[in-house]
Amino acid sequence: MLLFEEKVISGIKTQLTYKKKYFGLKKQLLEKTEELENKLIKTNYWTWGNVSRIQEFSYEINEDGKFQKHGKDERFGIEMHTIRHYVNDKLHGEWIDIVNKKIFSKKNYKDGKLDGEAIIYNEDGTIEKKSIYNNGELI
After folding, report:
1. Residue 102, Cα to own-chain centre: how many angstroms?
2. How far apart are alpha carbons 124 and 49 in whole angstroms?
């Protein structure tokens, strides 16, 4: 379903470029996408209604005509939650995995490659393993 609507944000009337929704066989919401100017917010849902993924991106078309995203991608499982960041369509910044509401791992990316610390934690929060990367190479 594709809808166009006008919305008021912070007291300013803004044209919402598009809003679309996908529904399952039982008419439950499975996906909702909204685009405002150059920001895209896409939310996916499990069939039982819980959020499975949220993507918030600004985007641009580069000089080669390719779409590049900049933003955050969060995925939600039954016991797991993952947060990733992108710049120029590549992983960039912190990647966090959370299991049972505790941080399981943290990694850093630069231009799509592991860069800096990559840490895996024990269930009690102590460090199990720590690695250092430089431009994708293990140091």
Report:
1. 19
2. 31
> Which of 10-14, 20-24, 108-112, 129-133 is predicted least confidently?
10-14
- The structure tokens 């939650």 sit at 81
Give the integer Cα–Cα distance in Å for 102 and 123. Answer: 7
Total residue count of the chain as it appears in this document: 139
58 close to 41: Cβ distance less than 8 angstroms = no
Residue tagged 């590049």 (tokens): 68
136 band by pLDDT with thresholds 50, 70 and 90: very high
Q: How far is CA 13 from CA 17, 35, 37, 56, in A?
A: 13, 15, 13, 21
| Per-residue pLDDT tens over the stretch 81-134 | 999 999 988 999 999 999 988 999 999 999 999 999 999 999 999 999 999 999
